[in-house]
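User: Some background: our group keeps a shared notebook of sequences we're curious about, and every so often someone picks one and asks for a predicted structure to add to the entry. Today it's my turn. The entry only has the sequence so far, pasted here. Could you supply the structure so I can complete it?
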Amino acid sequence: MIKQLIALVALSTAIVLSMSYAQQGVQWLVAAHDWVSQLLTEVFSGGHAGNLARGLLALLSIPVLVGLVPAVVYWLVKRHWFPYFMEIVWIVWLIQAGALIVMYKAVAV
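Assistant: Of course. Here's the predicted structure to add to the notebook entry:
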């Protein structure tokens, strides 16, 4: 319990000290999501189902691609599958989904 408390305080201090870098990273993540979503508008129709599929693929593609980068490097070095691939994907997905929820603007229909 005390180790987790110390880790929480240390990570919180690190985030506070590097807030501008963290904000820039989240902005890049959202910009990458918007870019992928814009690319997918050419593939999917403009209807409800097309927008749903485009949003789903845009939300899933960035975390998987971010997770694949260390996995490929690890595989090239060790010739084994990267053991923390899904953990990285989940962390990036949670950060991306949180940022998108905060930035969401309801579209008037």
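Suggested note for the entry: DSSP finds four helices and no strands in the chain. The chain has a mean pLDDT of 89.
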